[in-house]
Specification:
Blueprint: E1 5-14, E2 17-27, E3 32-36, H1 43-50, E4 58-63, E5 66-67, H2 72-77, E6 79-82, H3 94-104, H4 109-122, H5 138-150, E7 156-160, H6 168-183, E8 187-192, H7 195-201, E9 204-209, E10 212-217, H8 219-226, E11 229-234, H9 241-251, E12 257-263, E13 269-274, H10 280-290, E14 297-301, H11 305-313, H12 317-324, H13 330-334, E15 337-338
Parallel strand pairs: 3-8, 3-9, 6-7, 7-8
Antiparallel strand pairs: 1-2, 1-4, 4-5, 9-10, 11-13, 11-14, 12-13, 12-15
Length: about 350
């Protein structure tokens, strides 16, 4: 079976900035595939290369076996693209916007009329289709944008951060729509930095960091690879590194502790991977007490996709977001991973 999306050794540089270093992944027909990573990781550049909006410096990029580099016009017929920023003409009604989109795709009038009704019904826009898009809420704007991307029945629907800025109720509506699309056989490639979004929707996921894929698989596979439960421990609100290191050295002697990472970006908190056992928290707290070390906060949980990212990079996705936004000291970032 031909892959719906095939990307091999993709590279893209903007001047001195290496946006994508070497990215490879494959999306199978009829699945939702998630690209997860912080802002600046290379997700949007990868998507723009796939959608023929940016020419890659190197690599192989295909949609349904068609090279987007050698045959961009043919590839565009097979894909629908919904950008992160919604771009609507606010004086048009939803139906008029879809009619314009159909004309741009050169759909015959009869086929266009039928298809417009289909996508309006699919996305629950019957009540709003003949109202101006300038009156739409953020959730409705996203839905009409999705309708435009689906109008020509693409093999692959590409969504760049489809729920960013939406309230939780609107996000759930979009999630339900994407599940319906999967049921109809549409392949969906979605980028996001929302952990719960990718976990809830994706059949498989690739986690991108600094222009490379650092993990790939089903959400369950990736979380199982982390192994054990996760315990987050804060000795103090902001612990001295020497105290955190002392606690790490001591806790590593406990038989159920598998790994400990000191997270400098979060006040030198300790992130532990432990074998599941009912008295893990009690044992850790008692060991800290015996060593005359304080406990500011402690919590235990099953592994998450953020734990996968932490295990691979030594920092959480939130830390990476803050670093990308310039809210962290770049020098501190280099010292962040203490193992």
């Amino acid at each position: 079976m031909v892959a719906a999306v095939l990307i091999q050794n993709l590279q893209k540089r903007y001047g001195s900035v290496e946006a994508v270093k070497d990215i490879s992944f494959q999306v199978e027909p009829g699945e939702i595939f998630g690209l997860l990573g912080p802002n600046g990781a290379g997700k949007t550049t990868t998507i723009r290369c796939l959608c023929t909006l940016t020419t890659p410096d190197a690599g192989k990029v295909e949609i349904s076996g068609i090279s987007v580099i050698a045959q961009p016009r043919l590839a565009r017929r097979r894909l629908g693209y919904v950008a992160q920023e919604v771009a609507l003409d606010k004086v048009l009604t939803g139906r008029e916007l879809l009619q314009l989109q159909a004309a741009l795709y050169h759909l015959p009038n009869a086929a266009a009329k039928k298809r417009i009704e289909e996508v309006i019904n699919l996305l629950g826009l019957e009540e709003y289709a003949d109202k101006k898009t300038g009156t739409y809420s953020g959730g409705l704007q996203r839905r009409i944008d999705l309708a435009a991307g689906l109008l020509h029945q693409p093999d692959v629907l590409v969504l760049d951060e489809p729920t960013v800025g939406l309230d939780i109720e609107s996000r759930f509506v979009v999630w339900d729509l994407l599940r319906k699309l999967r049921e109809t056989g549409t392949t969906v490639l979605i980028t996001s930095h929302y952990l719960e979004e990718i976990d809830a929707l994706a059949n498989r996921v690739a986690i991108i960091d600094r222009g490379v894929v650092i993990a790939e698989g089903t959400p369950s596979q990736l979380k199982d690879q982390v192994g054990g439960d996760r315990i987050t421990l804060r000795l103090r609100e902001f612990s001295p590194i020497e105290e955190a290191q002392k606690a790490k050295d001591m806790l590593q002697t406990l038989p159920f502790v598998q790994e400990i990472i000191i997270n400098n970006a979060q006040g030198n908190s300790l992130n532990l991977v432990v074998k599941p056992q009912s008295d893990a928290l009690m044992s850790i707290q008692q060991s800290l007490k015996d060593a005359d070390l304080p406990t500011f906060g402690i919590a235990q949980a099953r592994p998450s996709l953020d734990d996968v990212y932490l295990a691979a990079t030594g920092r959480t996705l939130l830390d990476a977001e803050l670093a990308a936004a310039g809210k962290r000291d770049p020098k501190a970032e280099k010292k962040q991973n203490m193992r």
